[in-house]
Predict the structure.
Amino acid sequence: MAPDKRLHFLAGLFISVITGLLWGHFVGFALGVAAGVGKEIVDRVLNKIAERKHLPPKHDVDIFDAAFTIFGAAVGGMLSSFIIKVITQWPL
């Protein structure tokens, strides 16, 4: 796996787990997806701005970057759901 894709996966995972533990696994997943798609949209806008200034694009826009972030968010959502279930059912 390319280092860039690994970072996207880890970013989605991190966002999803942290927010999933705070506000629930679905919210965590949704925010991870939003981060992945949003980052690619921002990259596209920045490239358009650079193009208008006759500069080379600074960011690659890659659908697979978003896909790896979404995949990380999905894994993070499942992980946060599992952690919450274990914690709430832990015998005290």
The chain has a mean pLDDT of 93. Residues 25-52 form the longest helix (28 residues). The chain has three helices and no strands. The radius of gyration is 16 Å.
